[in-house]
Specification:
Mean pLDDT: 88
Number of helices: 9
Distance between the termini: 64 Å
Oligomer: single chain
Length: 370
């Protein structure tokens, strides 16, 4: 029928029951949507990263030697490489109490997929595999955003440089956004389908549909992944205090939606507010891996989401839990930030020392902005 209407699909994802196609005439689209085996037809919406403007002074590494991946290296790596310098544990990693959780788990052997602009080769990142759903080419990062997100999740902390929340988790690059940090729902859906096929444990999506539009096709893909046991974490958006809703896919009830907090334990001014936020994590001036073997500080809910993705990997590495149970346990152990409603912070600031019931000298209490 599509051929009869002069339509050639540009993408087909059979397991997700999705066909992408271009039409020049509305009548052609109407003919397809009226077919008895077609459930719905919708516009292939634009989607983009959730990073705010970078901070004024980027941090660069003291070395820029090109990194070549050793294919013989095992996929489980120690927290610290054998160097004279220990890893740099940044304020944000300390704030979510990841180092305390490392006494129990560092994330191995969980598989975490980053659906983003790709991941670049970097001495602090170990990429186990990936895919390019835009054109089938390389999954290398040509923007920097995906590499930054990946470092927050799982940087290994070589020679005094940054370490991620789950430094022994396996990283997978799903390049579905271009060099401008933009893409289409169809490429995200194909990326989710790839993650299902490769049996990922966690998916991070630091991105959102632009404007107030909604995608049923993307929601269907998310539901399918969650039914397969994959935990999906997404950034709430950077629309700020005046926003009345968070972006999709974070807005889906199956997704762990993450707001951004500051170093002063306040909700960041750029962080979107609205129903559906599950939890909060640091998102201001976050130092992480960048292109050219360097490091950079960025702000945005894009940076808060991977903290929670890493936290989910730590939890899953020691407990067999459903996505719903992972979300509940992370939220139950969070600490409320003073003077903010659930529409801004969800359950509060993630605290990973609590997920394994690790006892610390400090009692759980509300955090003030000091």
């Amino acid at each position: 029928m599509m051929k009869a209407n002069g339509i050639t699909p540009f993408k087909a994802v059979p397991r997700s029951l999705m066909i992408g196609f271009h039409v020049l005439k509305r009548a052609s689209s109407s003919a397809i949507s009226s077919h008895p085996e077609v459930r719905k037809v919708e516009k292939d919406l634009k989607i983009k990263i959730h990073a705010a403007a970078p901070d004024k002074v980027p941090y660069k590494a003291s070395y820029h030697a090109p990194y070549k991946r050793n294919k013989a290296v095992k996929r489980s790596f120690p927290l610290l490489m054998p160097t004279a310098k220990s890893a740099l544990i940044t304020w944000n990693i300390n704030r979510v109490k990841a180092p305390q959780a490392w006494t129990i788990s560092k994330g191995s052997p969980m598989k975490v997929a980053v659906i983003d602009t790709g991941i670049a080769n970097h001495p602090d990142l170990r990429i186990a595999g990936g895919v390019n759903t835009i054109n089938g080419g390389s999954y290398a990062d040509d923007n920097g955003h995906g590499t930054h997100v990946a470092g927050i999740i799982s940087a290994i902390g070589t020679a005094g440089h940054v370490v991620g929340v789950a430094p022994e988790a396996e990283l997978y690059a799903v390049k579905a956004l271009d060099a401008n940090g933009e893409g289409y729902v169809s490429d995200i859906v194909e990326g989710i389908d790839w993650c299902i096929g490769k049996q990922m444990n966690v998916i991070n999506m630091s991105l959102g549909i632009t404007g107030s539009e909604s995608s049923g096709v993307l929601h269907d893909a998310v539901r399918r992944a969650v039914r397969r046991g994959i935990v999906i974490v997404a950034s709430a958006g950077n629309s700020g205090e005046s926003s009345k809703q968070i972006d999709e896919p974070a807005a889906y009830e199956e997704v762990i939606a993450v707001a951004a907090s500051t170093k002063a334990n306040q909700i960041a001014s750029f962080s979107s507010r609205g129903k559906g936020i599950a939890i909060t994590a640091p998102g201001q001036q976050i130092l992480s891996t960048w292109l050219g073997n360097s490091y950079k500080k960025l702000s945005g809910t894009s940076m808060s989401s991977p903290h929670v993705a890493g936290g989910a990997a730590l939890l899953l590495s020691r407990k067999s839990l459903s996505p719903t149970a992972v979300s509940a346990q992370l939220r139950n152990k969070a600490i409320k930030l003073d003077n903010y409603s659930a529409l801004a912070q969800g359950a509060g600031l993630m605290q990973l020392n609590q997920i394994f019931d690790i006892q610390t000298s400090a009692k759980r209490k509300k955090i003030t902005g000091s």
